[in-house]
Write a structure and sequence with these properties.
heterodimer; A: SH3 type barrels; Nucleotidyltransferase, domain 5; seven-stranded antiparallel beta sheet; five-stranded mixed beta sheet; 36% helix; B: alpha+beta; Rossmann fold; Elongation Factor Tu (Ef-tu), domain 3; six-stranded mixed beta sheet; six-stranded antiparallel β-barrel; 10 helices; 22% helix; globular
Amino acid sequence: MKLIGKRIEKDGSGHVTVVPEDDEDMWHLYNLIQEGDRVRASGIRRVQNVSATGSVDSYRIRINLTLAVTRVNWSPSTAPGAESGNAAGSSNSGPTANATVEVTGRVAEENMHVKLGAYHTLAIEANKNVRIEKDAGGWDSIALGRVEESCVPGRGAEVAAIVCGEGTATFCLLSEHMTVVLQRLEIHIPRKISTTSSAHEKGLARFYQSLYQSFLRHVPYSSPTLRAIVIASPGWVRDAVFDYIMSEANRTSNKPLLAARNKFIKVHVNSPHVHSLVEALKSPEIAAQLKETKFAREGMMLDRFFKMLASDEMRAWYGPDHVALAADRGAIGTLLISDELFRSSDAAQRKKYVAIVEDVKQKGGEVLIFSSMHESGQQLNQLTGIAAILTFPLDIEVVEAEEREAKEEEERRKAEENGTSE
Amino acid sequence: MNQEELDMAGLNLNEEAPREIVPEEPPKTPAAIEKLIEEAKAALTAQEQGEKQSLSLVVIGHVDAGKSTLMGRLLYELGRIDEKRRIANERGSSKMGKSSFSWAWELDGTQEERERGITMDIALQTLLTPHRVITILDAPGHKDFIPNMISGASQADSALLVVDAAVGEFEAGFERGGQTREHLLLVRSLGVSQVIVAVNKLDQVEWSKARYEEICELLKPFLLQSGFHPAKTKFVPVAAMEGVNLARAEPVGCPLYQWYKGPTLVDLLDALEPPSRDINAPLRFPISNVFKGQTSGICVSGRVCGGVIVAGESLRIIPGDESATVKAIDSDGDSLPWAGAGSNVNVTLTGVDPISLSVGSVLCRPSHLVPLASTFTAKIIVFDIQVPITAGTSVELFHHSRDVPAAISRLVATLDRSNGTVLKNKPRVLTKNMSAEVEISLRNATYSGPASRVLPIPIEPFSVNKDMGRILIRRGGETIAAGVVLELLA
């Protein structure tokens, strides 16, 4: 994403103008734009004119519209990857966006074609300016942090992952903030019946072949930004898949694919489902290569949280209320929070979470904002979306009792005050 | 009457009383089929008192304990493999430089299994002992193939545990993370209550009586703790490669018989109790394999989990809207007119697109459909786990031959293990050896948000059909809990 202009007042109101470029930027926009914001972007609108004689003519024009947002929609890309593998040159044409963000709202600035208050839905387009204007308090540290993060050039290290089992394969493309499932392949392989039947072998051969075809179609193996191609599976499927891909590449003398040989990493996972992607990413082979990427860090931190939950339950808390209590006591060492919580349409909710994040940061704690487009983020979402590893053990029961007491005390005090004032 | 009135009448808009919606009657089973079903039930009831009772047996144990070798040898001893076949297997295996796998060759049929010298999927064979017809399901021991092992174990009523007596090998299989433990827990949770323990490779420890007894003593407390009744657990020393103490006891020549006077493996197999079958329940046939038949039609194999299936009837395939006609039923090469609950059979179906048949689907009668669910509550027992279960834990749910990604969406209550009373409502975590009531939701495999629908699976509460109500929960290659379905929610 490119930052075109930024003007933020002291009270947190103001506007930011950016140019989204790829899918990831669309995801950032989806997280930045909230209900009540004003978004200005170019879009196509059908305009109807009724002439004096009553004839109606309608035409489409491209205009810049400013909307007061009432709803934001996100749909991830399902189309094949940015560039297909065998067209190595196409990587020069720049990344394209397949994911879409749709902003619905009422027009906030009238122009000669569109009346004030008319409804419109803008599909945010790549490589076009988007201006986001928020009211006082809207540009909090989280939002500004996201703008900054999204405009750092040179990110975009990508990893392709194939999670496969016998007869099933899922192709995923992982970037900093997103995991995109490109294709799910399912080939029925008859299980072994008797020693004489070759149905099983035939089924396997069919599976490898379609897997190879999908691989060529979806995995941008020659792209320089692709850091690694992970093949993860239980059993020995990954070896067989790798061998098949390499032998096919040899047979068809696919030079770019042969050159990408050292990008392949084979990892053992325990199940062929997509959620074992987290398991694959925390395996030592990959962790060493991708240590600094966001998704690897998230996976490792979530793993640490679960380990802490196992070894010292009093130092691993989850759930918004509990984490808020821990934050009050300054006990949070690492905060794991899902970006979904900041997307809440309730401004007060968002403010509450922002306050927790700022509080933890101020006290020297580490904050990781998980992307819910990653498997680790999905798992955090399942776990209420917020969790914390504490620096010292705290017993929930004790803390809750303390809170109750404090509340009762407060009420008693209030009651007394009321009593004396009357 | 003018035109307008006629138009309105045609639209049926001005009718006074709303028309009652008559639910469509499920298609009736044709009388001929009905009669056949009755006949089958009568015949099966008679058979239960008869001479040869049938049951199925899953062979379990740690990887390389010798499960396939033991079965291969046993098949040979009982005359199921002829000499010619044995020589062919021997030649084939020595050609690959794996002559020690010659007995396992018979069961490990695929090329990959033979190359690696390891069982990867269930092999199905039939054994005839003097009083029993035993369907053998040879399970893989490697932990990556536990899904296949579960698929096999869910089709069995009893188990044969093979343990390696060699020093260090038994211990490796029995310690934490070894498959001896996990397999035993799995089969017990899947409703298997009888187990025979074959202590294998005794020849490698000089037929030591002390070693045999040491192993028995180590296993007994664990078996009891896992819920196997001591009266239903039997131990037998064997040596699969040499074929000692399998079918015949040969007192001369083998040092084993200097101290062992007990029954042989076949004697024990012959004494296995067949479980009671529920042939009056509605038909349930979970599919464990789909393949092309020898002639026309498509073949599915699996075990009848309730009721009877007869040739000629029309069955629904759940999930889906498809129906298929049963063309033939066969078991071990013999064509059968019907098959009752508990029997492992191949069913040839016609009049159906193979695409609508998949492993994990259930065949049932149109009059008694199996319910579908994507969220349900279950009573689970948590195994010996390191990382506790929280609400939202991502798991794999195993139900018959199907495994699907799921999440423990809610922890309802922890229960007392002995009497089932509620100890604590809404616990924060479940730790090892707890018993609890939880809500399980199937997970979507993509990230496209709530819009995409989760596909429900055919499942029934345990109180309705025991076989259809058992679930296993695994995470990260480790079985973390087993349970029974209480109630279907959505």
